[in-house]
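=== RUN LOG ===
request id: a7f3
mode: sequence -> structure
chains: 1
length: 229
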Amino acid sequence: MKILRRGFSRKYEELKLRIDSVDVLVAVKEAFRYSELSSLLDIPVPILSKYYQGLTIPSKETSEIIISRLLSREVVRDFIRRLIHSKKYGSLVKLLSNPLITNYLSLCFYMKIIDQLAGTSVSALIAPPDTSVLLAIGIAYRLNVPLALIPSVTTPIYESLELMKEVGIDKGSSTIAMYSILGRECIPYLKKFMESLKLDLKFVGAVILADRFIINELPKNVTVEYLLP
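=== RESULT ===
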């Protein structure tokens, strides 16, 4: 498929946008106080509270403001840092165990993919068999493309490439790769998988990029987006 906003009716798209904005607000409320959100969004606290409790849904225009501002790079980075250092979460693994948060981060990357790859053909999404999958599922759903696991030392069952084909990954697929943490140890597995199936890697996303020099080990035409550091 080409990376375009999905071709549903305008009414559906508007309703989805409004629901997404509430989901984003509810997720971000895990890290921000109402007063902070009110300042960020220029929306009174009582109104935000009604959105949060599901008593009312924002208008299309207000939803666009909520999504635009709460999915900005600065807010998302601050959100992650606050929760990783909080008593309730304390780690990225625990953070990604919350479906509200994985949905929020998935939407963040989905929006980046839409912006960066508009009009580009993408037919698959791949991720290592760890917390990365929790993010990848939401993105694959929104893009309407199949998701497959990248074989690694932790998944000997996936050593057969025939199994990969069974889950929808064909040779030459235009692909997006997602990672919760992208470290140098991930690159050999990614390269091996790409070479075996002759995948055309278009985009790599990571919540945390462990080493910025990793970017130099990826094909030059690949778009790389990460949230931290």
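=== NOTES ===
The two ends are 32 Å apart (CA to CA).
The chain has ten helices and five strands.
=== END ===
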